[in-house]
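User: ok so my PI wants both of these folded by tonight, can you help

Assistant: No problem, let's get them done. Here's the first:
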Amino acid sequence: MSKPRIPAMRPALFVTCILAAPSAFAGTIELKVYGLVCGFCAQGIEKTLRRDAATADVLVSLEHKLVAIETRAGADIPDETLRRALEDAGYDVREIRRTERPLAEIRATLKKDGTS
């Protein structure tokens, strides 16, 4: 019996995909949230959102009324889940949008603006 012949291009493509996957950016969910008034609010939100297995990182900016969640590759958090978690904690979620901005970029922008 002869072995099936695998075209040379397929293994190369497979290896490229495998190597690129761990560094693939999954996406960011940015929320406009009203009612954030102190560092304790920010810590509570971060703790709540980090419990979700899909969460890779969280950023809370009181000054910008911003909560940003970077998701893990291949994972997502439904809008309704986010809205419920924050509204059940007493916050007013005004907007949820999905972006391609990594949290590092958002942090750098906030730092440049003189806020965090």
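One down. Here's the second:
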Amino acid sequence: MAESIKTAVNAFYAEYSQYPSNTGKTDLNFLTLMTTTNSTGTSAQNTRGIAFLEVPPKFTNGVGGNGDLGLVTPKGFYSKMSNFFLAIDTNGTGVLTNTVGSTKYVVASSVAVWVVDPKSANKPVGTFK
């Protein structure tokens, strides 16, 4: 799913010549922006109403009381569902520096998407390459 999110963000950039609002995670606002054909409200940035991302239901079954609405890891994938984290290089340098736990990662990319590995709080799992 991380690669699909990254592809959708890059497609948004290709369409609008700007990246979508970056909240740092794939919360409900991000999900609405990237999947809806509605160009009002939360999706006002998506003025053409393009659905950039098709999401299987297992990735949207978060629980509001747990703060994990939006795009989440599927039940059973990890011990706890979690939003994906999202970093976008809005400065145009082509390099992202992200901190996962207490470890810094430098990624040569304009978009990175990850979840924290449940076995190691300092290890990202996703589009870090």
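The longest helix spans residues 2-16. The chain has two helices and five strands. Good luck tonight!
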